[in-house]
User: What shape does this take?
Amino acid sequence: MRLLPMKAFIICRRELRSYFGSFIAYALLAVFLLLSGYFFYSDLIYFILFGGYVLPTGLWQFVFLDMRLCTMLVLPLVTMRLFAEEKKLGTIELLWTYPISDGAIVMGKFLAAWVFFLIMLLPTMINPLIFYQFYQFDLGPLASAYLGIFLLGSAFIACGLFVSSLTENQVVSAMVTYGILVFFWFVTWNEEVADQQIVRALLRLSLFDRFFNFSRGVIDTRDVVFFGLFTALFLFLTLQSLGARAWRGVN
Amino acid sequence: MIRAEGLTKQFGAFTAIADVSFEVARGEIVGFLGPNGAGKSTTMRILAGVFPPTSGRATVAGYDVVADARRARSVVGYFPERVSIYTDMTVRGYLAYVAEMKDLPRAESRRQCDAVMQSCAVAHMQHRLIGTLSKGYRQRVGIAQALLGSPRVLILDEPTSGLDPEQVAEMRTLIRGLHGERTVILSTHILSEVEATCDRVIIINKGRVLAVDTPRNLNQRLRQTSEIHLEVIGPEAAITTRLQKIPGVLRIDPADPALHPSDGATALRISTVKDRDLRADIAAAVTVGGWGLRELRPLTLSLEDIFLTMVANPGGSSAPPPAVNAPAPDESLHHLSA
Assistant: This one.
């Protein structure tokens, strides 16, 4: 099998049409852009008033930690329908009778949410671009932060896709995804409750602590690999979940 | 064209079908008949490639549905029991998408979409969103998507359920029209449907195949005697005595309560030797006795009787089924609730 079978693109295109044919896509885009725009504004004001001179730790870090929250808020709502809706409608059954592999179905769906996420991210670049007109800053750390948010988003999407394949209820799909993501966030918040060894292990697993480096302009290969593995793991689980129809049935 | 060998499917501890075997020849239309939950859908889903069997083997046009899934799927058109189509697409948009899924080249896709919309009578709805269509139209779009790509095998799971009588008739005409060029398996729990459209019947109950035969042969096989319904104005005892003297008459019973006339005339069910028409002798005997002959007609077994017999008594045909009238020709929606 090729890495990206052509059929995946057909699935992806149908999903994107479906997104933009409904009101939900525009609502999600609007909320995401308004929130991230507001955060950029307030973080910039904060930076100008109290931030000092170092952009990566003074501004980008805060902008992207805030954008991380918006992403976490919006992406589960993007991914919740991917499989849940097909299961609810029953359309997934027909999909399984066409000459297409489960892998291509999963890739197509993942790709669709990915493209949607890119469409969400692109307009947020307007804010730093306008800022750039007034102050020629180093673009490296900004690119690093965008790479980080992109990898983080991929991980969120893979997780959301997997949860969506487990249920036919979209609300359940979104809630469980929130549950998993928030757990990966809070897992290292209270370092006092757990043994230092455990905290160190958990820190390695926390998506958000991994993201922290990117937001300050540091690209660590280990972090990139971690996000890649996290994404791959959930895509693999999604594939297994689809395969479960062999012993669980369709309904 | 279709071959199932010892198909068994288990979901956990539940056995949906057990050791299902049958063959369907090229160009045949075969009806899959059984009550709800008999295992029809499970068998069809295995053939269509939705999920693999727990054990056993199935091939479609020579391709193994598991080992050669991609090729097997590309020769099968499937219509699921739950008609499920993306509601946010137009009819044409949806069919174009399915054509792409089935690897049709662009020009061919256009031509075939037009053709299937024509034959399923949805061409005038092609720009409507599927979500706004009535159930009957959605069903037709479902059939249209199965026909796309000219699959050699069609697997239709309850293609007429939920349609009104006129649409049912249209759907049957459509399916009959496929006879000879496509191999069709269709499932139903409506018995007259099988009689109307199918060359052969596979009767399935509780996950097991009870019989595979033509409707006519099933009828022959299950009938031990010929039965005649007789309605006469006159004393029952005397009539019975007289008729019993006719050679070939095996037994005489009061007719089925549903067939009893309200005015007190005598109604009888006469069982005679198989395949011998005694109507003339009976008529003569009645006339000689001086009674008024009102009705005299053969009782035939409907597929429904056969089915009930098979389900109640899978071993075969020891007990004759209760004599029920053959369904009147216009009684097309004969539901068997199970």
Notes: Chain B has a mean pLDDT of 83. The interface with chain A takes residues 10-12, 16, 45, 48-52, 70-71, 73-74, 76, 78, 80, 82, 84-89, 97-98, 100-103, 145 of chain B (CB under 8 Å). Residues 32 and 310 of chain B are 14 Å apart (CA to CA). The first helix of chain B runs from residue 40 to 48.
